[in-house]
Amino acid sequence: KDGQNFSGGMGVEAAFNERLIDPARRGEPLALSLDARVQGALESELYSAMVDQKAKGATGIVLNANTGEVVAMASFPVFDPNKLGADADARRNNVVQARYELGSTFKPLSVAAAMDAGVVTSMAKTYDATAPLQVGGYKIKDDHPLGRWLNVPETLIHSSNIVTARIADEMGAGPMQKLYRALEFDRRPSIELKERFPSLWPADWGRITNMTVAYGHGIAVTPLHLASAYAALVNGGIWRPATLIRIEADQAPQGRRVFSAATSARMRQLLRLIVMYGTGRTANAPGYRIGGKTGTAEKPSAGGYAHHANITTFAAAFPMDNPQYVILAMMDEPQGSSKYPGVRTAAYTSAPVVKQVVTRIGPMLGILPDQRRDVDMSELMPLLSQDRGEN
After folding, report:
1. Which of 7, 26, 69, 385 has the most CB atoms within 10 Å of its CB?
2. Could you tell me which residues are beta bridge partners of residue 61?
3. Distances in Å between the alpha carbon of 189 and those of 206, 223, 224?
4. How confident is the model at residue 390 (pLDDT cuts 50, 70, 90)?
5. One of 7, 33, 48, 104 is an active-site residue; which one?
6. Where in the chain does DSSP place strands (E)?
7. pTM
8. Is 75 an annotated catalytic residue?
9. What is the pLDDT of residues 278-294, one digit of tens each?
């Protein structure tokens, strides 16, 4: 303009700077995948929850499960890009610039890895969760112990660290590492943005690390890493890079297979069960067939973990009978909401946000509630004990 050279400083403008200043493409629109309506709803619900829960921050993303398109992305606190000197925390886009141990949201990924590795061959097989699991000098325990043997659906519904660790131990480090590398948990997230943090990959992947990584401790990734992984988990098993560019119908990138189609179909059932009967019940929006997994992880601090400082995450997809979108909500150090005062776990902080967002954005995205449809879970229902959903 008027002979001046402009350059994007950060975000989308920096990512597509060369394309935007190319004289040969002047006047050619750059069509982004972002939907302003969905973005507004996501920001509104995250901000409302952050204030209500007196949290330090909130993060969210809505991702097209079949193309990798980012439909909405939000990170709080926020700043005005027209005013310099904003706080460093506000300038950071936590979706791609913050790494977290994401806790139990990793469990479905690990169980899926075990299915594809031939280690978990039956949903009915039970594992000992009667007592904490002692491995060397390390003790693995459940937050809400049931004190009995659990099968695979119960393991995910009740979010058992003990059984997830047992399954990982039986599987060994090889298949777990292979999957996590295929999901790009060992590098920066794949998206056009220049501001992307690398993950924190375990320096030594021994037996204990393999067991704890299975339930999301000892490895740190960005929320976008997790969203892309969940897309592959539910879409039939194909991982695709996230993108901010609008993809025309039938033009989705080929991607690569990371889960078998059969495992992905099974995981759609299991994730739906978690929302119907387990720790994800507060995310159940009637008619939208949401499926997902909670994750509550203590934040690292000097010499260990801060017991009263949690990162709470709910990673989900909908509708689970034909997944179209992945949605992730994360709260940073929530103190409890007005509805659930003093309760700081993901089930009562992040999962309700997903319910609110899906209820608002579903119709915008052409997904209307239909209570006559759902995932067929009839073969798994007999495996659930009567104490389901008490955690």
Report:
1. 69
2. 73, 328
3. 25, 9, 7
4. very low
5. 104
6. 57-64, 70-76, 126-129, 133-135, 138-140, 148-151, 238-239, 256-257, 291-301, 304-318, 325-332
7. 0.93
8. no
9. 999 999 999 999 999 99
